Amino acid sequence: MTFLRIDPLTPEFLTAVAELDKSSLGGIWSLDNYRREMESPNSDLLVLSLIPRRPENRDSRRDPLGHPPDPSPILVGVGCLWSILEEAHITLLAIAPNYQGQGLGQAMLYQLLFCAWQRQLEWATLEVRVSNTPAISLYKKFGFQDVGRRRRYYQDTGEDALILWRYGLHHPGFQNWLAEWKPQICDRLTRSGFRI
Hints:
Blueprint: E1 2-8, H1 14-25, H2 31-39, E2 43-51, E3 74-84, E4 87-95, H3 104-118, E5 123-129, H4 133-141, E6 145-154, E7 159-166, H5 172-191, E8 194-195
Parallel strand pairs: 1-8, 4-5
Antiparallel strand pairs: 1-2, 2-3, 3-4, 5-7, 6-7
């Protein structure tokens, strides 16, 4: 079982998050963009990392207590939302290509919506490529609805973006919805060999 963590982005992960951005999103944001978002009080910028197990090799270096050193976390996902008045604008959500289809995107989207709920925002919105059917399916599973289209939104391909909205984050039932989804997400991750 591999352990996962979702934490706010810290400077140690800046280079890794920029590399993930290039491999998963085509390089949407620069290091400066990530630095700025990391410092903004209106952003929740989160990273998903794998925590490898400590090596069992008896010959490896050990700390003063005799334990092998903790292996470095491996960044596999990033997500960001902007808090704008009553709105949570999800600006990006990416999982490293080798880790897609294993429930990690669900975990990250859940955490972003949880952050929006903690901020007492009323709705969430995002744009997604019309051709990105796995992402669209994920968002609709989480209650997002298609409300429009931005023509030629993506400059690299000229592709349209769907505009999706998730209403009712401030409604009392949303907290129940979060409570119902959490074990489902944990179960999905367990089936993929992860524990959060």
